[in-house]
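Treating backbone geometry as a discrete language has practical consequences that deserve illustration. The sequence in question and its structure tokens are set out directly beneath this paragraph.
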Amino acid sequence: MNLELYIANRILSGKSENKSISRPIVRIAIIGIAIGLSVMILSIAIVIGFKKEITEKVTGFGADFQITHFDNNTSFETTPLTLNDSIKNELKEIKGVKYAQFFATKPSILKTKTEIQGVVLHGTDTDFNTSFLKRNIVKGKFYEQNDSTKSNQCLISLNISKMLNIKIGDKITFWFIQKPVRARRFTVSGIYNTGLQEFDNLFVYCDIRHIQKLNNWSSNQYSGIEVKLNDIKQIDDIYPEIRRNTSIHSGEKQMLKTINIKSKYPNIFNWLDLIDMNVWIIISLMIIVAGFNMVSGLLILILEKTNMIGILKALGQKDINIRKIFLYMSARLVGQGLLLGNIIGISICLLQKYGRIIPLDPVMYYINTVPININLFHILLLNVGTLLITVMMLVIPSMIISKVSPIKAIKFD
């Protein structure tokens, strides 16, 4: 039987404790720990959710890797690559690759009766993965494609539809500045909205065969290949394998270049990385505050139980055993605070995740509501880390017990 644990439980469960001087201080410490943990849970859930949402949107437009022609051209008017299904199938077989697809881009001017807007047509093949765009369609639907005939429909963003007053079913004309100047007329099948203004104001989706015909390309010529991974965290690990694969298909006539999404949009991903620092600062501050709350509570408990400490010492108990009693008491109180903090933090997370009660300005934050990503492993780490660090912070203050004199302590009232 653990005598120290037994005494600690008896002290905390005693009826007389409800009238003790330390009770309000201990309750404040428990509430402080609960608030701190709930803030930490919310911080991690929001930051992970925010990073996940933004990353999915950026990679939805450009995938995790783009394989294009190795030239100095950085515009959307690309040098064509002559490709066949073999390279695409080989990329799909790489472990960690979700899909690979051909694409083509072409700058254009979208003109209505009263307005004009510069846009980029993003051509999609028949095997194009539509999950990202379909998830963000707010009106209409994604146009249908088949191998026999090319689709004359297109998908535009909500921003473009508002700027140019375009509705579902409208016929719109795209002009292409080339020799000779050409035009194409499309019917709007759907309107999407991702919240990423930089991309929403730019991309219009259409059948890739229109771009191939406008550029006088053959049916097996494309701007490049988009490669999407199952997990973007593997981007650095999978890059060498993709690079080796593409180098096999490079030659004198065409050199292939592989660029990952983080290199293409470093400003966005550097910004997301900076958010992690804010979370670490919040977690550190909350744990320090929780630790000092418990330190003050422990010192009050020691002061109140000075008489008991003197009696235990007189009975032959060692200082380290008496310190264990107070550390057990502190650990139990921290546990109560953690339990309350979990209930508060997870409840708010679930309320926001499914109720969407806290909105955001999509112009500023790229999303219209505070995102939540609940990860039970992260919550477990927070609980264990907070418990261990807080109890460790109590070890030094508990050494004051060794300074208590049994004779004076027994007289202490």
